[in-house]
Amino acid sequence: MSRLSLPASRIHSEQVTKSEKWLGYLLGPAGALLLNAVLATYLNVYYTDVLNLTPLWGGLFLTVFPIVSKVIDAVTNILMGQIIDRTRTKEGKARPWLLLSAPLVTISAILLFTVPEANDTVKALWVMLSYNLFYSFAYTIFNMSHNLMVPLSTRDGTARGGLSVFNQITTIMMSGILVALVFPMVIMPMIGVDKSKWITLMSILAIIALPLTLLEYFFTKERVTEEASAEDDGGRLTFRQQMRIIFSDKYMVLMYVYFLVYTIGTTLKNLGLVYYCNYVLGTYNDGITQMLVSVIGGVPMGIGIFAVWPLAKKFGKRNVTMVGFLLYALGSLICWLFPTNLVIVLVGQFIKNIGGLPCAYVFMALFADCLDHLEWSKRIRADGAAMSIYNIIAVAMVGIMTGVFNWMLAGAGYIAPIAAESTEAAAATLAANGLTAQVALESLKPAVDGVLTVALQQPASVNWVISFAFVGLEVFTGIILAVILWFINVEKNIAREQEEIKARRTAE
After folding, report:
1. In whole angstroms, what is the distance from residue 298 CA to residue 305 CA?
2. N or C, which end of the chain has less CB nearby within 10 Å?
3. For residue 149, what are the CA distances in angstroms to 92, 94, 171, 181, 384?
4. pLDDT surpassing 90 at residue 171
């Protein structure tokens, strides 16, 4: 990368600018984050309900392949971290990779859904290859570089916190508004289990991500990288040396444990959302139930834009997040005790999301403080290596928990929906196979092409699995996270440590 002549950033100021916040951190990441949010919620639905891969290889395919894929993803994250730490350009060490990721994310996302109509072996191979092309290659490049933008943008704690909030506003807007509201209420009832409609929709989202990712590249700036000297750059160390240094720092270790526990809980919750609203609470793709859960549960996220950072500045990022997770556990417990009561579930979701506000908005600022502490104590910056571990946890847990979730569904006896040309044909299919529709066939509305999607009544064991995934597990993870945060008091001395880092560089 050092010999390449890259397009220059449009940001030249030494201080964080308004255009940087709005274009680089709010609008720029929106395309790729929207795409990822849709995939996190609906890709597994596409595999189980559209491609009907649940019974493939006796239920083992959807259990094993995500886990194996994430082993590959973990390796590519390590490699990408090393590449970033060794990248030398005038445009920084992480930003240049945003430029490369833009077309790769678009192309690989389209391939995820264009699975050919062929035998099971061909389908399985296409799914495995396209999944790894997107997650292990294209999105790894984007996600690694994108996540380093806040830590590398500035050392100014207030400005860094503001960028973290802007970044999370985008994430929450994509997942909490578009994916959680528009998709279940408008999009999913329209596309049903029609494969061609899924391909069209996802192709549009993938193409939108391309220009927006380029916008993030042009309107961000790596000020911390620009000030770093060659002597304190961790890129000269081997990966083993970097890992030894990173894992000798207690704050980094605690942050990784924290993120591991958090990711396990949120991944199962995300996987269970659609199934929970469809089967435990409402009717299949009714356009209302999931919308209500998302609106009532997501309202606090809008409030958090204005409330969280002032509270974090007054009481500390760690303290506000710690108290928040106790509320998080309480809200989850309320939902779990009454999983089929929509009103009580909405109340629990509201409380839970109030508690989740600090984590959603200030986590990356707290992680950046830990990176600065590591630089102060060890005299190196190993941003790429540190972020590779963060990303390995994120992607590995997505794969592992997807496999676990699918294994739980298969073991509990999950029954995928069926498509029929008419209510009479649906009734005949149900009678022939001894199945029961979740709602009266007469109440079903056909898609534009006239095809009916018929959801089937699930066994009680399936509904329990879905409820535990969506609301039960986070009762426990919320409490565990609050305990872990008690020991992450990096903010206590971070201002002094940052001043000492600046003094060292001035003396060099």
Report:
1. 12
2. C
3. 10, 8, 15, 28, 11
4. no
How many whole angstroms separate alpha carbon 354 and alpha carbon 114? Answer: 39
Alpha-carbon distances of 312 from 257, 300, 308, 357, rounded to whole Å = 22, 16, 6, 11
pLDDT, tens digit, for every residue of 266-293? Answer: 999 988 988 898 888 866 556 678 778 8
Contacts of 367 (CB under 8 A, 6+ apart): 151, 255, 390
List pLDDT tens digits, range 65-83: 888 888 888 899 889 999 9
- Token pair 């739980």: residue: 408
Q: Which residues of 142-167 are buried (b: 16+ CB within 10 A; e: fewer)?
A: bbbbbbbbbbbbbbebebbbbbbbbb
Model confidence at 2, pLDDT cuts 50, 70, 90, reads very low
Q: What is the pLDDT of residue 115?
A: 94
Please give the Cα distance from 199 to 203 (Å, whole number).
6
- List pLDDT tens digits, range 23-38: 999 999 999 999 998 9
Distance CA 156, CA 372 (A): 11
CA distance 186 to 164: 31
Q: What is the 3-state secondary structure (H, E, C) of 373-426?
A: HHHHHHCCECHHHHHHHHHHHHHHHHHHHHHHHHHHHHHHCCCCCEEECCHHHH
Rounded CA-CA distance 426/431 in Å is 9
Per-residue confidence (pLDDT) for residue 319, from 0 to 100: 94
Interatomic CA distance for residues 484 and 467, integer angstroms: 26
DSSP state letter for 285: T
How much is the pTM?
A: 0.74
Provide the terminal-to-terminal Cα distance of the chain, rounded to the nearest Å: 27
Q: How far is Cα 129 from Cα 476, in angstroms, rounded to an integer? A: 35
Burial of 7 (0-12, 13-18, 19+ CB in 10 A): exposed
Coil, strand, or helix at residue 454? strand
User: According to the model, what pLDDT value does residue 283 have?
Assistant: 63
Q: How many residues does the chain have?
A: 508
Which residue has 């993938």 as its token pair? 206
Record the tokens describing residue 30, joined without a space: 């929106």
Min mean pLDDT across 316-320, 368-372, 398-402, 466-470 is at 398-402
CB 453 within 8 A of CB 419: yes
